[in-house]
Amino acid sequence: MSDEGPSGWGAPLHEAVLDATAVGAGTRLLDLGCGTGLLARAAAGRGAAVTGVDLDDGAVEQAAAAVPEGTFLVRHAQDPPPGPFDVVAAVQLLMHVADPVAVLHRAGRVGAVVAATVWGRDSECDLRVLQEALAPRRPQRPAAVSEPARLRAMAERAGLVVERLDEVVVPFDYADEDELLRPLLATPVARAAVQRSGADAVRDSVLEAVESFGTGDGGYRLENLFRVLVARPRVSGG
Ligand SMILES: C[S@@+](CC[C@H](N)C(=O)[O-])C[C@H]1O[C@@H](n2cnc3c(N)ncnc32)[C@H](O)[C@@H]1O
User: Fold this and answer.
1) Ligand 1: residue whose CA is nearest its atom 12
2) What are the boundaries of each domain within the chain?
3) Which of 2, 78, 174, 185 is the most buried (most CB within 10 A)?
4) C-alpha dihedral (35, 41, 44, 46), degrees to nearest 10
5) How many angstroms is it from 54 CA to the middle of ligand 1?
6) In this predicted model, what pLDDT tens digit does every residue of 106-143 receive, in sequence order?
7) What is the spatial distance between Cα 101 and Cα 81, in angstroms, rounded to a whole number?
8) Domain 11-122+140-173+223-233: which topology?
9) For the chain, what is the radius of gyration of the CA atoms?
10) Per-residue pLDDT tens over the stretch 2-14
11) pTM greater than 0.85 (yes/no)
12) Is residue 10 in contact with ligand 1, taking CB distance under 6 Å?
């Protein structure tokens, strides 16, 4: 699964993470892979003290502008600031890092609670129909973290005790064809499809793929499942 979606799609997922970890006034939150600071903004809105890290310096700059009261650093998620933090979040990060277990392990070293979100399996996400329309013959490589048992096992290998593994269904709403097609056709996989088959054919096959997701008013709704893992560092000894 890619992370593309209509603008603002992540808000329900961010709220689910903040609710599951009881983020509120005074919570010290570290946001790993903070991107442009959307989770940090929502957390700061609840009164949390926010630190964010991301490898992308442009994203870090945007996050700092969006959350002036926060602290944002260009830094690898595997090398978090020492904290300590009440909550360490990794929203839609684990599928992008080479060693998710190491990221979870380091998160548990600096935080009392670790929350990580991942896409569900392709079969649980309507967005797969877009990928199938654009690259019908490309074999799907399911992300290991999308399998709940594997995600749990990774957290356990990272020295965490899993408290919850919630499922959150997030609707991706598109007002009309243009809102769906414009960003989609700008993606590398769509550009490759256009080169192979031509723009009209790609457009037609995407619209055919989403036909059954029409909302009746010219728009579309694709529902995608995400998993929200909440864990705590294992207390060793005594
Ligand atoms: C899909 S985006 C998610 C952004 C944000 N967490 C959100 O939910 O809106 C993944 C983010 O992880 C960042 N990233 C990828 N690998 C990273 C790493 N090793 N260390 C820190 N950030 C990383 C990317 O730059 C990108 O901003």
Assistant:
1) 33
2) 11-122+140-173+223-233
3) 174
4) -130
5) 6
6) 999 999 999 999 999 999 999 999 988 988 766 566 67
7) 18
8) Rossmann fold (3.40.50)
9) 19
10) 466 787 888 999 9
11) yes
12) yes
